[in-house]
Amino acid sequence: MIRIVRAARLRAVEEQLAAARQREVRASTNADRALTRYLADLAAAGETVRAAEAKADAEGFRADVAEHDAKRLRDQVADLIAKFGELETMSLTVYLTFHDGRLHSVHATEHAARAAAENDPTAPASPGNWGAWTPGPANGSPTGWSMRRVAVHGLLNGVHERLAAVHDTGPGVHGAPEGVRGGAVDG
């Protein structure tokens, strides 16, 4: 069977074909634009995820460092508390220098005590003119320089008391207020 196509029908089909091609081009252009937007959004989302992961890693690292530092500080505090506990029960020898019967200075070593007295700017002691250790002056207050070795027990005991006076000092001595002796109010 032979089919005869009329010119009008042929033009109508060609117009439909041209219109379909234009729709195809518009759809393809719209699809390309949508794909480009989708890929850009996907890349931005990926960058946001990478930035969030990097921030989380950094925060996690900072948290780990802070936790490590806190543990190290807790260990140091525990060591210091133990050392203070030892100091509270330990006996410590100190060297006291006196000038004309009055306390001049306190030192950790005999050498440091002698050096302080011998290098005093107002009344230096004569080098090598130190006698034997004595518990105290035999008759009244000595004149000149003297030195005593003293054992202090429980070095830190009473440090936190409000008025920790030394050996029942008299009123007004060593900063103790009038009417206070040895940390207790007279009366």
Structure description:
The protein has helices at 7-89, 110-118, and strands at 91-99, 102-107, 145-153, 180-181, 184-185. It starts with 6 loop residues before the first helix and ends with a strand. It is an alpha+beta fold. A hairpin with a 2-residue loop joins strand 1 (91-99) and strand 2 (102-107). It has a three-stranded antiparallel beta sheet. Strands 4-5 form a two-stranded antiparallel ribbon. It is built from two helices and five strands.
Please report the number of helical segments: 2
Distance between the termini: 142 Å
- The percentage of residues in β strands lies in 5-15%
**Order of the strands making up the biggest sheet:** 2-1-3
The value of Rg in angstroms is: 47 Å
Task: Give the gist of this structure.
With 187 residues, the protein is of the alpha+beta class.
Write the layout of secondary structure elements.
Blueprint: H1 7-89, E1 91-99, E2 102-107, H2 110-118, E3 145-153, E4 180-181, E5 184-185
Antiparallel strand pairs: 1-2, 1-3, 4-5
Keywords:
disordered C terminus; 2 helices; 187 residues; three-stranded antiparallel beta sheet
